[in-house]
Amino acid sequence: MDNPFQLINDAFQPEYRVNLSLQGLDGDIMLTLSNADGVVAKRMISAEQRNDPQRLKRLIQSVQFGIAIEQGHSALEMLTAMTDSGSLQLATLPAPMWNTGGHRVGRPATITGRVLTLPVR
């Protein structure tokens, strides 16, 4: 299995600073993602999640999904892009666009198969 810490770093860098800190003797770690504006996301990762490649992949996708929603992306667009061809893939989404009335205008996601790249507002 690949190093789980490296997988986490690769999934979020260079878009975010990644901080992993040990939270207890049971092996839980706290993932903190930040950028120039401050903390973007925090997630507790159990030893079981960290050591199971499938659970770790789902956790990374869950964090990416949460960040995208917070940044104004459509959940439906995200899920459609991530589940293309029946296999869970990650997408690169452009920043959402807004019309003059202040309403969001959707743009399609691009499948990359690697990470969800999110622009920093």
Report on this structure:
The protein is an alpha+beta fold and 121 residues long. The protein has one domain (4-111). The chain contains four helices and seven strands; from the N terminus they run αβββαααββββ. A hairpin with a 5-residue loop joins strand 5 and strand 6. Helix 1 (4-12) runs parallel beside helix 3 (53-70). Mean pLDDT is 74; it is low at 85-93 and 107-121.
Using only C-alpha atoms, the radius of gyration works out to: 15 Å
As laid out across the biggest beta sheet, the strand order is: 1-2-3
Q: Average pLDDT across residues?
A: 74
User: What order do the helices and strands follow?
Assistant: HEEEHHHEEEE
Observed structural traits:
single chain, 121 residues, alpha+beta, 3-stranded antiparallel sheet, two-stranded antiparallel sheet, 4 helices, disordered C terminus
How is the topology of this model organized?
Layout: H1 4-12, E1 17-22, E2 29-35, E3 38-45, H2 47-51, H3 53-70, H4 75-82, E4 91-92, E5 97-98, E6 104-105, E7 110-111
Antiparallel strand pairs: 1-2, 2-3, 4-7, 5-6
Helix pairs in contact: 1-3
Summarize the structure.
By secondary structure, the protein is α+β, with helices and mostly antiparallel strands. Helix content is 33%, strand content 24%.
